[in-house]
Amino acid sequence: MKASKNSKFSFKNLIFTLICLILIAASVLAQILLTKNQSETKKSDEISLEESQATEEKKKPVTLSFVGDVSLADNWHIAPKYDERGGIKGILGENILKIMTESDFMVANSEFTVSTRGTALNKLYTFRAKPGRLKIYFEMGVDLVSLANNHVYDYGEIAFLDMLEAFEKYEIPHVGAGRNLAEAEKAYITEIGGYKFAFVAATRAEKNIVTAGATENSPGVFRCYDSSEMIRVIKELKKDESIDFIIPQIHFGRENSHNLEKEQVESAKAYIDAGADAVVGHHAHVLQGVEIYKDKPIIYNLGNFLFNQEVVDTAMFQFKITGSGELEYYMLPALQKDYKTELVDGSKKQQIIKDLNSWSVNAKIDDTGKIIKS
Length: 374
What we know:
It is a single chain. By secondary structure, the protein is α/β, with parallel strands linked by helices. It has two domains: 1-57; 61-373, Metallo-dependent phosphatases (Purple Acid Phosphatase, chain A, domain 2), CATH 3.60.21. It has nine helices and 20 strands. The N and C termini lie far apart (109 Å).
């Protein structure tokens, strides 16, 4: 029996409809897949852009500046001159003050306690200031101070604790001292120009030890007469892969001597071996040489920066990162004279550079102050 003409037409129509539906479904599916692919590509591009921007962020030039011993004690020389001369420009030259305040990060060794309480320890010199003196650090552009030295405990534990509270009140970060060992050895970690820096500080300055060292349950400074203590801290920081640079400050060296002690050289190199990216020293009251060890700088002593009535050569150390990520190091010669510190130029600058070169090891400072490996 033959199928009717209408039946044939209906079958063909059904086939045609099914084909159309399949084509439409394929088209819709293709559009969905295309949209998904475009979305994933856009997301990937956004991630790549973010990664690129993060990389670019790390290419910002950075300047860190370090100076040596600073005393703002009321019972010493500089703070009274600050009052007498009408402020910061009476104790710092405009040339060096400009560099300090314009640096991306400025670090100083704060060599006095901050309190109106306590009794002076039995030692030749004891320094303390009223808490309000810390405001001078703002005028100096100081972002961080080292408290790991032999004068922060001059008036005993009560004054030492007052000092810690004062720095916290004025929100001035500090390293190298604390209410216990955990605080004293704790690093100050901060991001500067897209790079993460860790700063730590310790002291091995005293031959006759009277400054209290922090313990698990008692306040004091972070000591490094045993170098393994600082090595331990540096190695622990090195485990944190987010930290780009570790810079310890060490209060060490023989006072009023340009010659290095064996312990200075050995411990500074050990800190580099442990993972430090530079070592910055102070305490000697005078400048000592620099060394490039494993392509990293050791600044053995920055000496007095703004400390007393003496005429003394000094310098500012600068740790720089260029826009392309290269590291550069500089020593900027300065002079403390007549209760005021200023950058120097001309023959005086060249004399300080010449002296530094004569004391340095595997390093040379050129006429611009740049430290290069020799």
